[in-house]
Amino acid sequence: MAQTQPSDVEAEIRTDKKPFVPSKAYATRKTIAQGALDLALLMANASQLKALVDIPANHRNDFYVGLLVLIGLSIALQLAAGIILLVLGMTNPKDEEGHKRTECLNNSSVSIILLITVVNIFISAIGISYVENESTP
């Protein structure tokens, strides 16, 4: 049996259907999800910072300052991403300029989140370790 192909009229009807979820609702959900993940990562970095600062001075390894800088950078980038996502969530572009601004903010947030991911990979790779110094009494 030969399979029937949809006619051109049927193909046009199918492409004109509206998506099940409106694009504004999708964008809002995506922004909320990104914000929630950003908050979870912020809390994890705050916990890592606390663990790092709690290490006594005589037990710190060579990577202490590097980890301190990376965790601080990660937290600063997360705050910047959070602010951008907050602004992006409140933005409702109505004209071409608004769409360009929204696209720029979206691209900026994606870039910052990528940078946060790379920084946190380095934090995890280095790790926070507690070095026992052997001291003679």
Shape: elongated
Number of strands: 0
Helix content: over 70%
How confident is the prediction overall: mean pLDDT?
79
Total count of helical runs of at least 4 residues: 4
Task: Indicate the radius of gyration in whole angstroms.
Answer: 24 Å
Q: What's the main sheet like?
A: none
Unreliable stretches covering 5 or more consecutive residues: 8-12
What does this entry look like structurally?
It is found in: Membrane. The protein is mainly alpha-helical. 71% of the residues lie in helices and 0% in strands. The protein is built from 4 helices and no strands. It has helices at 8-15, 23-53, 64-90, 96-126. Helix 2 (23-53) runs antiparallel to helix 3 and helix 3 packs antiparallel against helix 4 (96-126). The protein is elongated and about 60 Å long. The model is unreliable at 8-12 (pLDDT under 50).
Question: Quick gist of this model?
Answer:
This protein has 137 residues and is mainly alpha-helical. Helices cover 71% and strands 0% of the residues.
Offer a few descriptive terms.
elongated, 71% helix, 137 residues, mainly alpha
Q: What is this structure's SSE topology?
A:
Elements: H1 8-15, H2 23-53, H3 64-90, H4 96-126
